[in-house]
Design brief:
The complex is a heterodimer of chains A (287) and B (164).
Chain A lengths: L6 E3 L4 H10 L3 E4 L5 H6 L7 E4 L10 E4 L2 E5 L4 H6 L1 H6 L1 H8 L4 H6 L2 H6 L6 H8 L3 E6 L2 E6 L4 E3 L2 E2 L6 E8 L4 E8 L9 E10 L2 E10 L6 E2 L1 H7 L6 H12 L12 H24 L1
Parallel strand pairs in A: 1-3, 2-3
Antiparallel strand pairs in A: 4-5, 5-10, 6-7, 6-10, 8-9, 11-12, 12-13, 13-14
Helix pairs in contact in A: 5-8, 9-10, 10-11
Chain B lengths: L5 E7 L2 E7 L5 H8 L18 E4 L2 E4 L12 E3 L12 H8 L9 H14 L5 H7 L11 H20 L1
Helix pairs in contact in B: 2-5
The chains are: A alpha+beta (287), B alpha+beta (164).
The structure holds flavin-adenine dinucleotide (FAD) and FE2/S2 (inorganic) cluster (2 copies).
Amino acid sequence: MRPRPFLLHRPNTLKEASELLYSHEDAKPLAGGQSLIPMMKLRIYSPEEIVMIGHLPEMQPGVKQEGSTIVINSMTTHDMVHHNELISEYLPVLSEAAAAIADQQIRNRGTIGGNIAHGDPSTNLSAALLALDAKVLASGKDGQREIPIDEFFLDLFTTALEPGEIITGFKVDIPKNSRQKFMKITRSDTAFPLAFVAVNIQLSDGVVKDARIGLGVAAPTPIRATEAEEYLKNKQLNQETILKTAEMATKDLEPPGDVHASPEYRKNLLNVLMKRCLNSLLEEVKQ
Amino acid sequence: MMEGLVKVSIDINGKKYTDDVEPRLLLVDFIRDIARLKGTHIGCDTTSCGACTILIDGMSVKSCTMFAVEADGRKIQTVESLATDDKLHPLQEAFWEHHALQCGYCTPGMLMSSTFLLSRNSDPTEEEIREGIAGNICRCTGYINIIKAVKDAAGKINAGKETE
Ligand SMILES: Cc1cc2nc3c(=O)[nH]c(=O)nc-3n(C[C@H](O)[C@H](O)[C@H](O)COP(=O)(O)OP(=O)(O)OC[C@H]3O[C@@H](n4cnc5c(N)ncnc54)[C@H](O)[C@@H]3O)c2cc1C
Ligand code: FES
Ligand code: FES
């Protein structure tokens, strides 16, 4: 299978890349290519021009701590996110979400920036970054801006990125007293997950002080379970509150359906995953 | 802007291959049709089966899901790099001994994924081997003998290191 022919650009600076993307409406940046190339090969999507960004100095992979914030560069691969020490220590839900993406080869190539820019509700890292209240760092022809992750996903494959804007990285404030968990249900590793859940709760003496829950393949975009988050606040984590949270997180969902899972079935999976995540956190706290 | 053909130069198994290619040329086609190394297979052509797995700068990737232009100036290892002269690589020997292949179509990819795994983890558990080859599909063997072979090869490579 061959993609349609396209024009290739290899700009020298990030600004040049943004300007190219801005002035050529049908141009797309290429990061790890693990979503874009399969779509181009199937001819589901055929951009006329491709702008390479991975070679640019500003786009080199890396993770660093700045005070109480973790900064993750856009081209950091899923494999690097999975194994990075800062992320494993402070943002384990992100590390677990990256480890659960497809297989080793895809994790060696796919990037966190591409995963989020794709705007697909079945990308693991979107649920994790929603749970972590991340900020998306975007660079356009007129400069830099930070987009709260809550405002980033607009519709299926549609994000808040303006024409010409490129994701350069992500910022996450290190959550305090936080317990985090990512869980998925899938047919096989390489297949896209049927459903997944990312949880980040702040606990004090067994009481939930704050909660953020990201849901995957639950709607046309990655979403948070805001009603369930509100409910959990100031509650003791126990069997009763876990059941209720799972119900509140999923009762109004209208997830997509496909050959592998009907909307009803998917809703049920999300409910089960929600319970499993919170139960496993409850076990952790008890130890 | 690059219209038409783009010059690409890739080091494959220590030898440099240079050609003018279309930007849409897939890396696997560069390896098979330009470098004429036919060990790297195309199975699914949809990023699912792993038959096209190679190492680029030491990392395993599916060469059906990269453009050749992305590998410009970089170092690639394919299955042809494993054996030296007439001597099989310990992984290849172990695959032979344990009947870890039947039709052999998946084998180059299995070997390259296993090579990557052992480069990171010289003594993997069965679980870690399963995880390491999760991106490689085999329609014949049922995987059990492949797992045995990788475990055995790891042991032999480690024993070899100790006696050195
Ligand atoms: C078989 C298979 C199974 C998979 N399973 C999973 C899974 O279980 N979970 C999961 O999360 N993902 C899965 N993926 C997708 C994988 O994680 C991709 O790596 C990821 O979604 C896209 O990242 P990329 O770097 O490869 O981006 P690319 O494919 O290069 O780009 C994706 C999109 O984002 C745009 N883009 C890329 N980088 C930027 C940037 N910096 N700024 C602006 N726009 C940008 C591109 O133009 C394109 O539209 C799977 C992929 C395959 C092939
Ligand atoms: S041919 Fe590349 S993954 Fe199957
Ligand atoms: S030996 Fe036939 S596909 Fe693996």
